[in-house]
Amino acid sequence: MTRTDQTAGDQPRRQALLEALRGADAPQGVTELADQLGIHPNTVRFHLDALVTQGLVDCQLQKPAGRGRPRTAYTSHPGMDRGGRRQYHLLAKILLGQLSTNPDAGAAAEAAGRNWGGYLVEHIPPSHQIGVAEATQRLSAMMTDLGFAPEPDGDAAKRIRLRHCPFLELAEEYSSTLCPLHLGLMRGALTEIRAPITATSLEPFAEPDACIVHLSRTRTAGVGARAHNRRTRST
Predict the structure, then answer these.
(1) Domain-embedded: residue 82
(2) pLDDT for 3-43, tens place per residue?
(3) What value does the CA radius of gyration of the chain take, rounded to a whole number of Å?
(4) Is residue 62 located within the same domain as residue 173?
(5) pTM for the full model?
(6) d(CA 78, CA 55)
(7) CA-based diameter of the chain, in Å?
(8) By residue range, what is the domain housing residue 57?
(9) Is 83 within a domain?
(10) Is 101 found in the same domain as 51?
């Protein structure tokens, strides 16, 4: 029997112990639980230790009524069981489906992405001015953290390949909503760090193994560069 099979077989007994503790009016000892469930005390103790480690059960030492050792008693930890299944994929589908009903779903998704992009990117001091290379690096760092596996092209100021999509299955079904949201993330991040570049578009599945983000220098950056050149020539 593999460890995985053994762990799977442990679950019914642990669940039975947990339900017994939840239904008890007072803290329970190992012997009481073993008698109630017809399980050997050592087996009960083993599963209780695991439930305590998982944070599902609390244990405490109780002073004996007379002579003897303190009694270890167990109670279920208050609160909802955190060991159950998660359905975040379903939640994402529900939210994307609702967002897709917007008359201009792409614009709404892009706006939502902008707000979060400004929040997720690493902020910089107001006095710090960044160049194209640093802006691309900071954008790539954020997208790496989000799981997109970005790969700047030869000219980083022009485009970035996204080698992985952490929402691939959803993007295949809701690309008209999810891809603008991703574009908004990048635009919001670049705006937040006052970058001299912006993300102009995102081509989903432009290559067999990548989406392509197109970048361009902002007009403000060009004006600033020309002003700097004029000052340099005049000195």
Answers:
(1) no
(2) 333 454 578 888 899 999 998 889 999 999 999 999 999 99
(3) 29
(4) no
(5) 0.66
(6) 10
(7) 97
(8) 3-76
(9) no
(10) no
